[in-house]
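Question (not urgent): is this output format expected?
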Amino acid sequence: MAGGTRRNKRPCEYALDANWPYAVMDGFRPAQIGQAIARALSEAMERQGLSANALASAANVNRQVITYVLRGETWPDILTVASLEVALGEMLWPRHFEWPVDERGAAQEPPPQG
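Got this back:
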């Protein structure tokens, strides 16, 4: 299985605080990416005034899967992310190679601008 036993934990379980999807994350990049996708999805849905039901219909993605991604309870797969991006007309996948590196050498998503 890709990722070994790390896939046994949900993305939200790598959060170091309870502020999902804005939590401080540990250095496990896939979980950080999962959080960034959840945050981008939530923000896009809010901007566009879309409910999970409406987005599910537009993207042909199960509504419960959208809810699980938003909560960090599942690892979003490529088919799901691509389908949501097309339906939203927005990128959800983060530009994680541009994230700054912390003192431990772990990439960390920069805080939102605003």
